[in-house]
Amino acid sequence: MAVALLVLAVVIGLLQLLSDGHLADSGRRSSGGPAPLLIGLAAAAIASGIVSWRITRRLAAPIEATSAATRELAAGRYSIRLPAADTRELDTLASSVNQLATELE
Questions:
Q1: What is the mean pLDDT of residues 40-69?
Q2: Which of 10, 28, 53, 102 is deepest in the core (most CB within 10 A)?
Q3: How many other C-beta atoms lie within 10 A of the C-beta of residue 41?
Q4: pLDDT, position 19
Q5: Is residue 64 over pLDDT 90?
Q6: Radius of gyration over every alpha carbon of the chain, rounded to an integer in angstroms
Q7: SS3 sequence, the chain?
Q8: Cα torsion at 24, 26, 31, 33 (round to 10°)?
Q9: Which residues are CB-neighbours of 43 under 8 A, at least 6 positions away?
Q10: pLDDT, tens digit, for every residue of 4-49?
């Protein structure tokens, strides 16, 4: 969804540039000025910020949970278990921590 927003923002910006003649005739500037370009760039920047934030949160949440689980294990609470993660690497890490907790119990 976030990637779709980014693509949409870029397409809107390009359509505005084309409709104002900025890309069609680079030697002649339309009376609209750079506003459509700035609007398109701002929309793309906002969309890319949202995409970056969502990707970061998606990756950081399982890592934070794993960190908390290892602190629990270090404190002697061996009943802690991690849920399966979305990515193969994080799922492997969660399974390894769960196996460690089982062996320590």
A1: 87
A2: 10
A3: 14
A4: 66
A5: yes
A6: 24
A7: CHHHHHHHHHHHHHHHHHHHCCCCCCCCCCCCCCHHHHHHHHHHHHHHHHHHHHHHHHHHHHHHHHHHHHHHHHCCCCCCCCCCCCCHHHHHHHHHHHHHHHHHC
A8: 110
A9: 9, 12, 13
A10: 666 666 667 766 766 665 555 555 555 556 677 777 777 888 888 8
Q: How far apart are alpha carbons 104 and 99 in whole angstroms?
A: 9
d(CA 44, CA 26): 22
pLDDT tens digits, 77-104: 999 999 988 889 999 999 999 999 999 9
Q: Which residues contact 84 (CB under 8 A, 6 or more apart)?
A: 91, 94, 95
CA geometry: angle at 8 spanning 7 and 14, to 5°? Answer: 90
CB-based contacts of 6: which residues, under 8 Å, 6+ apart? 44, 47, 48, 51
Can you read off the two tokens belonging to residue 85? 């993660």
pLDDT at 105: 85
